[in-house]
């Protein structure tokens, strides 16, 4: 006896795991962006430089935004996994619908990426 609609459930689970990996990667990058100035301070102290690096408000905001987007990606993926799992097992046919969450997360990441690019290029 097998699992009903196993292929669909397996694909749904793979999608969830992919979103979770992506969310963790975005959160890790956000942590790196926010804490990179600490690394620069330690390097400056080790090299006995007079100039100390201070944490930038822009870097902190971008780092926190990336962590929040990563959390949002994981939360929305978990919700979608549950809803799709119930839809797969339903007897009635239903439409897949559009993923506004994925588009919103993509737009958010794009805007943060543009800000990071400008921040690094211009040095806000």
UniProtKB/TrEMBL annotation:
<feature type="domain" description="DUF202">
    <location>
        <begin position="8"/>
        <end position="84"/>
    </location>
</feature>
<dbReference type="Pfam" id="PF02656">
    <property type="entry name" value="DUF202"/>
</dbReference>
<feature type="transmembrane region" description="Helical">
    <location>
        <begin position="24"/>
        <end position="45"/>
    </location>
</feature>
<feature type="transmembrane region" description="Helical">
    <location>
        <begin position="102"/>
        <end position="122"/>
    </location>
</feature>
<keyword id="KW-0812">Transmembrane</keyword>
<dbReference type="GO" id="GO:0012505">
    <property type="term" value="C:endomembrane system"/>
</dbReference>
<keyword id="KW-1133">Transmembrane helix</keyword>
<dbReference type="InterPro" id="IPR003807">
    <property type="entry name" value="DUF202"/>
</dbReference>
<protein>
    <recommendedName>
        <fullName>DUF202 domain-containing protein</fullName>
    </recommendedName>
</protein>
<keyword id="KW-0472">Membrane</keyword>
<feature type="transmembrane region" description="Helical">
    <location>
        <begin position="57"/>
        <end position="81"/>
    </location>
</feature>
């Amino acid at each position: 006896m097998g699992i009903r609609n196993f292929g669909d459930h397996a694909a749904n689970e793979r999608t969830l795991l992919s979103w979770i990996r992506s969310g963790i990667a975005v959160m890790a990058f956000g942590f790196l962006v926010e804490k990179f100035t600490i690394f620069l301070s330690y390097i400056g102290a080790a090299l006995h430089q007079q100039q100390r690096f201070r944490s930038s408000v822009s870097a902190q905001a971008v780092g926190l935004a990336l962590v929040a987007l990563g959390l949002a990606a994981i939360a929305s993926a978990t919700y979608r996994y549950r809803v799709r799992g119930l839809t797969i097992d339903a007897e009635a046919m239903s439409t897949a619908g559009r993923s506004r969450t994925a588009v919103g997360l993509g737009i958010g990441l794009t805007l943060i990426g543009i800000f990071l690019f400008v921040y690094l290029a211009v040095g806000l």
